[in-house]
Design goal:
By secondary structure, the protein is an all-alpha fold. The chain contains eleven helices and no strands. Keywords: Membrane, Transmembrane, Transmembrane helix.
Length: about 230
């Protein structure tokens, strides 16, 4: 337990030192300024919140996770961690949790600006789940790359697949096959905060979200284990 808390603190400092929080604050300022200029009331924009969250999390969770691993590879931190008691699952959990909290706070503030604190609070479970999954997928995606230049182009394929739930939602499509996508279930939990969603559908989404979290965490651990072994 002491190791995971120490790793969480280290990751927070790493994120702060590399400007992740400053970038988030800067973009939030732009959002706040833009929203004050829109003629539409927040209630008219609320339906966009899940899609906006997915778009934002591709940066604050997916790419930030990849960026942290690449930074630690370049400065030799991962190689140094191999000789410490830190386990791979603790390393992955710390990255996932800190970035999930960042993504949740970031998008909750945007939701509060658009639709008020009540909607923002209702979005938190789906936001946190989606942010965590995106961070874990970011760790999986970056594991085989050693530099930003080699990672950026292949990462676009991951981004295209991970952003897929936005398309059927914006077009008003709905089908059970969409739930084969790991982000669809937390996306549905976010939808439930702004529109009526049947209780059984929310329950199924919660179960699928937990299942996706467990499987993605194990996949991220396997991917990062290879990275640490090769360091």
């Amino acid at each position: 337990m002491k190791r995971i808390f120490a790793t969480l603190q280290t990751d927070v400092r790493l994120q702060q030192r590399n400007g992740f929080y400053y970038a988030a604050i800067f973009v939030l300022g732009i959002y706040a300024l833009a929203l004050t200029q829109l003629p539409l009331p927040g209630a008219r924009l609320a339906w966009l919140l899940p899609a906006m969250a997915v778009n934002n999390l591709l940066i604050t969770s997916f790419y930030f996770a990849g960026g942290m691993v690449l930074l630690e590879r370049s400065d030799g931190t991962i190689a140094a961690q191999v000789v410490t008691p830190l386990r791979t699952r603790e390393y992955v959990a710390s990255k996932g949790l800190t970035l999930a909290l960042l993504g949740t706070c970031y998008n909750s503030i945007i939701a509060a600006l658009i639709s008020g604190p009540r909607v923002a609070l209702a979005l938190v479970p789906g936001l946190f789940a989606a942010a965590l999954l995106y961070a874990l997928f970011g760790l999986v995606a970056v594991a085989r790359y050693h530099s930003l230049n080699t990672y950026l182009l292949p990462s676009l394929l991951y981004v295209s697949v991970l952003a897929a739930p936005m398309l059927p939602y914006t077009l008003g499509w709905d089908h059970w096959l969409f739930y084969l996508h790991p982000i669809q279930a937390p996306f549905t939990l976010m939808r439930a905060a702004i529109e009526p969603v049947p209780g059984w559908q929310q329950l199924v989404s919660l179960i699928l979200t937990l299942l996706a979290g467990v499987l993605t965490f194990r996949l991220a651990c396997r991917s990062l284990e290879r990275v640490r072994s090769a360091a």
